[in-house]
Write a structure and sequence with these properties.
The chain is an alpha+beta fold. The protein contains two helices and four strands. β1 and β2 form a beta hairpin.
Length: 177
Amino acid sequence: MIRIVTRARLAQLEDDARTATEQARQTSVAADEAFGRHVRELFAVTDRAERAEAVTDEVRAMFARAIEELSDTQQEVLLKDIEIRRLREELERGPMAGDTLTVLMHHGEPHAVYASRDDAHADTATHGYPPDHVWTRCDERPAAAFMWRCEAFVYNPGSNGFHRACPPAPRALGGAA
């Protein structure tokens, strides 16, 4: 089959080819722009996701620390609650025969009352007395002669009070009997 092509037809074909090429170029530019937008959006979304993961990890760490602190606080509250119950029971029980108290005296004046001698000695260490000081029994000198002196008091149910564990030695009163 033989086909005869005229100049007008050839001009029309060339014009159609230019139009198709221009449309292809515009479509390619639009596709490139759309691809660029999608890539930028993908980078932005990826960046937001990475930042969200970092924040999530940070929040997890903060939450773990908060849970740990809460656990420590709950343990501390539980121990204090147990101690409060013990002290309430002791308070309700009242003193019993043989219970002791230690009075820490500073130059003969009562400074504080403690449940144990060790507590009184520890308090003198907070006031500059050496913590490794060897405590000895006091002699007959008056209490005011000592910078720090511990006096033990024992509960006596008969008198409903505490009395010195080691009462002072009786002194002669100028020849009076």
